[in-house]
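Quick one: structure tokens for this chain, please?
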Amino acid sequence: MAFTNEQIERYSRHIILKEVGAKGQKKLLGGKVMIIGAGGLGAPAAMYLAAAGVGTIGIADADEVDLSNLQRQIIHQTADVGKPKVLSAKETMEAMNPDVKVVTYHEFITSANILDIIKDYDFIIDGTDNFPAKFLINDACVMAGKPFSHAGIIRFQGQLMTYVPGQGPCYRCVFKEPPPKDAVPTCKQAGVIGAMGGVIGSLQAMEAVKYLLGVGELLTGYLLTYDALKMQFRKVKLPSDTHNCAVCGDHPTITKLIDYEQAECDGVGL
């Protein structure tokens, strides 16, 4: 595939990087990333992946844009209130970069549809705001052999980790089971500073880009936490023994996907 003059100019800052170059940019254009959740995390992740020239980006979300979303979900505008989030996101991404094909899924992600939705993608981004979805995404990615980036934000704190099959622990290795219902405050109850989504969602996009390029070190085996009030990042090494994990261990006890029931919680899982 030969670049057009417009593409050479658009991606020039990538192409001059020795870690990317023309070959790496072609990998990005051929890459496929699935984003589950078009909210505080998914919005910046989607915009940076579109800007980077990731060729196919899927985005799944069942909700419509609400006025309270606009404080942090920067892919949506005031005029988009009431519009399906996936449609608003698609319009923004395609206006930003016509090279990108955006595939939308205006539906809830469940045990019945997630494997079919993620099957054709190279990397999955978990931009959801509730524990049932996070455990479902983890388990589906493990079963399907798909790498993914988990993240969560609340108040002035955020966290993320990356799972790559065979290279480190999955989300369930670390957190085991969803917390009891109402044990963790919801986003509406606890609040979240808007820019937190930008910080953590952009890091998720970076993990996806590095995976597609095959460069650098991913957050496999580590949990990265961020405290905005202290302006402090911590990289915590996770347990390396995954043999007893209920889903990715040697003798998994979870062999079917589970639809847990719980309120929304935009939680970091800490």
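The first helix runs from residue 5 to 10.
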